[in-house]
Amino acid sequence: MNRFSCVLTMVVATLSASSDHTAWAQKDPAKDVVKEGVPPLETPAPKPVDPAALAKEITQMLAGTEADYKEGIARAEKILATEPAKYTSTSARAWLKALLDAGRFEAAESLALKTILAAPSESTTVEACQAVRVRALLGLNKPDEALANAKSLLNVSSLATTSAAILTVAECLNAAHPGDVHVVKQFRLEQIAGAKIPEPASTQPAPLPTTTSPTEKPTAESAQNCPTLLQVKIDGKVYEEAFKKIIGEDYLSLVAKGNLLLLADRIKDAREMFERAYGVGADSNLVTATENLARVIKAEDGTIGRANAWIISLRPAPANTAKPNKPK
């Protein structure tokens, strides 16, 4: 190696060593090592979600473009699966209305069913969602399915909303039997006859009646006083899995089971659940526990008269404030 080559080699080595030293010197050890006694910086906690604001946002999405709708329906379904207690009442109804108004009937029917299965103890929500299912099925031109679900709606409806449910059944009968005016007329006559209050209508608390006669035991059939409804069959398989998941014996669990059984048209089993719910919850839930039993009577008959008679019989005299006798 000549003298020039040796000098060049030494220069290159010196520059390389100098570069490594400079890189090391530029590092700030304080950034890589947590100082003793000083905690690391914490990531700020995410702001809590406002359920009302989120629900409104999803409602707008469901009524928006196709892309917005897809994102909105995915978020709504996730919420129902993870946090149903926060959203199933007012929020879910707003979402379903948005879907119906937008003509997205298949999505409305599906989301309504998922809402029912997520919160079956909320009787008013169950009824509202079942009404949406009927409306969506009519929109999908599925009159037979709509009629079966309308019968479920009548079963689960409160006494105050029974008239609206009867009209819905009549609408579905008309759709399922186009041009047959007789079937709707017959249903109307059955409802008029069944609305009459049996005599005597006592003003004193009475035991829960069984079926069309106080001496008869409840049957597995529903709508005993309404032959037109008696012919409408319901496939209750969609409620089975949700029913099996409810293992509690508290008031709300029993009400949830009872509502699912009413929807499935298993009226005898629904009566058992609501009688048990009355037994454990009448002291603190007297009004709703009594209403549940009246709904069972209505479903057994397919008409309102006997249920109304029983409610009238529970009205106390001015000096009597006793609660109804427990069902026998």
Class from helix and strand fractions: mainly alpha
**Shape verdict:** globular
**Which segments are poorly predicted (pLDDT under 50) over 5 or more consecutive residues?**
3-15, 17-25, 201-206, 211-218
Task: Report the C-alpha radius of gyration, rounded.
Answer: 32 Å
β-strand amount: under 5%
Task: Please characterize this protein's 3D structure.
By secondary structure, the chain is mainly alpha-helical. It is 64% helix and 0% strand. The chain has helices at 3-26, 29-32, 51-62, 66-82, 84-87, 90-101, 105-118, 123-139, 143-156, 162-176, 181-194, 227-230, 240-245, 251-263, 267-281, 286-301, 305-313. Helix 7 (105-118) packs antiparallel against helix 8, helix 8 runs antiparallel to helix 9 (143-156) and helix 10 packs antiparallel against helix 11. It is globular. 39% of the residues are buried.
Task: Throw out a few tags for this protein.
mainly alpha; 0% strand; disordered N terminus
Task: Give a concise summary.
Helix content is 64%, strand content 0%.
Secondary structure: elements and pairs:
Layout: H1 3-26, H2 29-32, H3 51-62, H4 66-82, H5 84-87, H6 90-101, H7 105-118, H8 123-139, H9 143-156, H10 162-176, H11 181-194, H12 227-230, H13 240-245, H14 251-263, H15 267-281, H16 286-301, H17 305-313
